[in-house]
Write a structure and sequence with these properties.
Helix Hairpins; 2 domains; 11 helices; elongated
Length: 315
Amino acid sequence: MKKKNFFISITIMLILFLLLIYSYQYDGYVSKYIDIIHTDYLDYIMLGVTNLGHAVVLLIIALFLLVSIDYRSSKNITELLIGGVLSNTLIKLFFKRPRPFSLFYEYGYSFPSAHMMLSIMFYGYLCYLMYHSKAKKPYKIIFFTIMGLLVSAIGFSRIYINVHYVSDVVGGILFGYLLLLLFIIYTKQKYKLIDESIRLDKSFKYAFKGIKTVVLYEKNMHIHVIAAIIVIIMGLKFSISTGEWITCFILFALVFSSEIFNTAIEKCVDYISEDKNQLAAAIKDMSAGAVLVNAIVSAIVGLIIFLPKIIEFLK
């Protein structure tokens, strides 16, 4: 996350936290005021609005998006909602705040509001996706405005039907925003690791393909491989020490890698310079010389390790 966005997020969370503390004193006052504006028609509207923040309704929308639009984003939304429901349940069990008396009975504890918390997470993530989409700026502004009004209406509806206090709604906003922020960071890191893993898999695939080409088609590599097999057989026969095994395998790696580099340089020179010339020949000779140096040193070390053992065996 960029530093600017990080500080903005921290600032918003601190403001919400202060609002949460400050809102406790207004719980009873707001409830009494809303009782004055109650009408049957408004009750009907608020009951419809509040259902737009219900976990089941949001999950149905997420599943619809899952099968009809973008699989990855919709999968993320589904995971977000499931995580939100579980988190809200745990937070409510921790605070155990009773709900206010209401004609519209609902189960569970009051703080924080699950409808508000899930709405912030769900519609907030839709805004996040919209922000990073290729849609034109005016459409983004319209979308953000609609989402903001919708979330605000859901929060108001929870207080209006008196199933939550004001502080419950503010607490839902705070915890919802916090979880949304953490989820965005988590998903960005997750897909970054997945993409890096895919690139890493491909790099291994190409590397093994290169090794396979050299082993199958380069005669000098055939000699190196046969020599390595003979050394391994002799090592097993004479039960050489761990240090001697390590030395042998390091020398294998040096000889094999130098032969691979030599082959790559030769192919590169042939590709660049189709015509024979002294410079191209000199480059190939130096590359082959590097392989020869490693091979000679490896042979000398091999004699130092195995010659005394062979002499002792022949006695």
